[in-house]
Amino acid sequence: MIVRGTVVVLATALSLVSSAVSVDFGRQIAPTIRTVVDTSRVTVGDRISVMVTVEHGADQQVRWPDSIDFGSFELLDATQLDPVFQDGRVRSGLRIILAAFELGELEIPSFDVTVADMVGPVAALSTDPWDVTVVSVGQDDSGDIRNIKEPLAIARNWLLLLPWIVVVVTVAVFAFWLYRRYADRRDRQDGVALAEPALAPHETAYERLDRLAGSGMLERGEVKPYYIAVSEIVRAYLEARFQIAAMEMATYEVMEGLERIAVDLETRIGIERFLSDCDLVKFAKWRPGLADCRDMIPRARKLVDETRERSAITKGVGEGADAVVTGVAVTSQPDDEGGTA
Length: 341
Hints:
- There is one protein chain.
- The protein is α+β, with helices and mostly antiparallel strands.
- The protein has helices at about 1-30, 160-195, 200-215, 225-240, 250-260, 265-285, 290-305, and strands at about 30-35, 40-45, 45-55, 60-65, 75-80, 85, 90-100, 105-110, 110-115, 120-125, 130-135, 310-315, 320-325.
- The strands form 4 sheets. Strands 1, 3, 5, 6 and 7 form a 5-stranded antiparallel β-sheet that branches. The protein has a 3-stranded mixed β-sheet with strand order 2-11-8, with no helix packed on it.
- Helix 4 packs parallel to helix 7 (about 290-305) and helix 6 (about 265-285) runs antiparallel to helix 7.
- Residues about 1-10, about 15-25, about 310-325 and about 330-340 have low confidence and may be disordered.
């Protein structure tokens, strides 16, 4: 029993000594650094992965630089990896993602890494520089110009287009229905409008004169607008009755137009006096009395009465046919024998 206990004690002691030696051996091994780049040839803008691994003692830690100048390369990302413990050693890592936007033979520069323990720095390590060739996108190593590729055919799935076709057809049918409905309504309105007889020029003038008489313009002292309104009513009547542009003409031009269509002299004189009185108020700033103002509508009615189109049905003597006589008095023209026609 004593021998067996002695053996157990010796085995335990040897195990403890072995562990201590192993730990102490791990501490005595100097820290090392290793740099691995995933490629040495890239195109412009491609990503380059750089893996930096430092092996050090368990009681030590790696101090990575706060900022690194990579020269012609642009730093896209830097990620510190979780440490890995193995056989009393620790493996710390840093993954760096770079990109280059210059062409040619470029070099990833070296940078320094410090390993320290609780007392202070233990070792200063440096990564290895790495050469990388950056080429243009689409560059052919043979140097020949490549042929243009054929256009890619896009596969058509008509089932995906079916909902859009249904929507387009529905919208077209609805638009056609709206058009037909509007067209039918317009046709009905046009039919009603055609069925209603248009007012004669003198009837329109009478209605407008009645509205002007009841407008109260004279009571409000609006003399000039009153004269302008009554002048426009008479001019619009003359334009519709005799087919002359009376609304756009001066008074003397209206007279010339009436003379050309052979309106009798007395009627032309009455029209000229009426329009001239209106022009005096509109353009010469003449201020007529209240009696003259109130007399303008009766004068306008008289002009319309004397010149409006009339129809009379007379019995024919020979065959009993009806004859229609329309118009206003015109100047008589002498015949060849000195009489009047």
